[in-house]
Structures are given as structure tokens and as C-alpha cells.
Amino acid sequence: MRSFSLIFLILLLLLSVVSGGIMLHEEITETGTEGRAAVIHCPYTEGYETYVKYFCKGVYKHCTTLMQTNREVNQTYKGRFTLTDNKDERQIVVTISDLRMEDTGLYGCGIEKVGHDPFTVVHLTVNKVLSDSMLYEEVKETGTMGSAAVIHCPYTEGYETYIKYFCKRVYKNCTTLLQTNGEDSWRHEGRLSLTDDKEQRLIVVTIRDLRMEDTGPYGCGIERTGQDLFTLVHLTVNKAPRTSTDHTTTVTHKTQVLNLSVLIPLCALLLFAGVFLFFYHRRKKRNINSLSANYYITGRMTTGAVRDEMEYESDPPGNQVSMNPVYQSLNTSQLDSIYQGLNPTTNQSNHVF
Question: Model-level pTM?
Fold first, then answer.
């Protein structure tokens, strides 16, 4: 029993080590312009909609919480920071307004839970204000297949009433997919939607149900006399990460393969050791019982024979019966005289014996 208890404890320890802290998404890179806004999107898997979400500066144990939601409030504000838990899209959305050069650095999106919090590392880079020749030098956006990507193209003050558009490819070779006009601030077509956020001075493009072929260069533009103001957008679509049915966090494919390659052989080895110990102890107990039985029977037989011999030798000479004279004194010729001498009317048993 002690051996089985030890094996069970070792299995529990291995499972706890293998199922250690896992990240929501490997990492996110976001770029912003000084004085403008940056919008960070941290996706999470199904099952964490009701959990507390937070945004912090730094990584893991050294991450200082800047703001967090709770189970009742899905959006919170603090200074230049806004945190929204978009439960429909399963995204933690963080907006940092009035960007400063010192905002450049590492951040993190996290979900509070028992054990290790699922965590997404965010790399934020703030660039200096560019000349009026371009809206923004370039924007990099990463999305997951099947989910949504939200692209933000900031523009400078004075272009709020201009026509905005979103196109595939770059500059003169860019094919327009959506555009607004001077009155409408929102357009929608198929999987794409375009919003002109005039308060934040942002062209916001949402692409839903991402596909691998969506990867490529795009552009946000503002129509004007002469050369249009243009922002180059690099969109990358990754394959969807694996999810588990018990709402555990997403793990990368390499980590899953490594964990299984370590756990399965160890479990098989421990199972084999448990079976070996079981049959070993069972066989050992059977051998002990067999030796005990043989010793008992042999001892009984030896002790009985010795005791019979000692009792016989200790009898007085007169009480010892010799079998050989009895057989030697029998004479078959005398049987007739014995039977002839018997008288039925007379009790002669004493004389015969």
C-alpha cells in the first residue's frame, strides 16, 4: 500500500508541474505616435468571460497593475488609460491616449484565477510625430484565424471632415475596400467595417472571421487635393491556438508536444513499477505461506514418530506386546479341536481367551 501511495503522489506532482502557468497569447506588438492614441487587443479563450481582467506595466511577477475590471463592471478608466473587457469578441482592449515617448516598454494583459494567471506580453513602441506627408509611417497588426482584427490609423487635427478609406495593398496599387464620406462616419461591407472616430482622430477598421489569406499589406487613406495622406498597414494572421474543454488556458503546440512526450513515458514507467511491486509482494507472501505450511507438516510428522517410539520403549517389559510370537503360536490344525470343545450351554469364553 505504501508503494501505491508513493506512485500516486508522484503522478500528482508531475501533473502539477506540467500544467504550470500558460500564456493567453504569446505576445503582442503595438506601435503608436507621440501625442496620439494606441489601442492594444489581448485575445483570450472561451470560458474566461466572467473573470477579472487587468492591465499592468512590466511582465509576470514584476508587473505593476495599472487598472483592472471586476465581475460587474466591464470597463474602467484611469488617467490616460482605458480598459474594456469585450466579452463578445473575447478580447481585453486597452486604450492609451496622449502617448508619450516614456510609454515605450513592456506591458501585460492578465486574467485573475487560482494558480498562475493567463498572461499576454505586450511590446509597446512610441514614435515621434511625423511630418504632414503621411498619417503614420506604418501600423503592424496581428490576428488569429477565426477571430477579429482591429486596425487603428491615427491622423492629425484638421482632417475630421475628410473622406477616409481602407484599401488592399499600398499607394497607387491599393484597391479600395471601404470608404466613408463627409457625412457618414461608419461603413460596413461583408467582414469589414470602417469607423471614423473624429474625437480620437482615428480610422478604425475591423476585419472579422480572419482567414490566412487576409495576411498582407493594406492602407488607411484620407482623400485630399494632391497626394492622399496614407498609412501603411501590415496584417499578419496566425493559426488558431488549441483550447481545452475544461476552460484551461491556451498552450502552444511545442509546449503541448513537450509535455506529452515527458508525461506519457513517466506515467507508463510508474504504472509498470506499480504492477511489478504488486505481483512481487503477492508472490513473496505466497512463498512465505508455503514455507510455513511445509515446516508445520514436517514438524508434526517428525514429532509424532519420535513420541510413538519413546512411548513404546518406556513401557514395562511385561506390557510390551510382541507380534511375532502370536503369529508363530497359531496352529491351524488345532482349530477343529477348539470348535469341538465349545459347549453352547456353557460359558467358556474365559477358557478360550
Answer: 0.39
